[in-house]
Write a structure and sequence with these properties.
The protein is of the alpha+beta class. It has one domain. Helix content is about 25%, strand content about 30%. A hairpin with a 6-residue loop joins β4 and β5. It is globular. Bound molecules: zinc ion.
Length: about 150
Amino acid sequence: MSDHYLILIPEKAGHVPAEEMRAHVQEKFRAITQPLKVEAELTEFVRFEHAGGNTGRIFCPDCGTELNYAWWGERMDQDFGEEKSFKLNPVVLPCCGAKRGLHDLKYESPQGFARFSLSALEPEMWEIQGQPLIDLETAAGCKLRVIFRRI
Ligand SMILES: [Zn+2]
């Protein structure tokens, strides 16, 4: 048996909405998705919010070439560094030479980097797009990225 989570992070990596907005979007997220529970996580450092078993391929956002998984892993280690916080410095992509941060790569199943996240365990509603997404973004006061995690 796997656990399934629907996760929201700000589209702008590391952005933390004001306290009132965080409470507001958490309540709205619960109301829309009807999960077993919703948890908010706020950390000092920028962490990786992954898709777990849903993790797919990774592509260059500029030319669409698939990026080598081992290459990506090395960039992750370098960026995380001894500070144990992602800096998301631009790296030169081996395909076309574009300079992009790890948050801006094209993840087949969305993933991203955040200080603030909301996770809904086993939601009834998975379709976070259109009006529900607009409502959540209005509550949070920022654009959001939706991640589907299976553990
Ligand atoms: Zn490229």
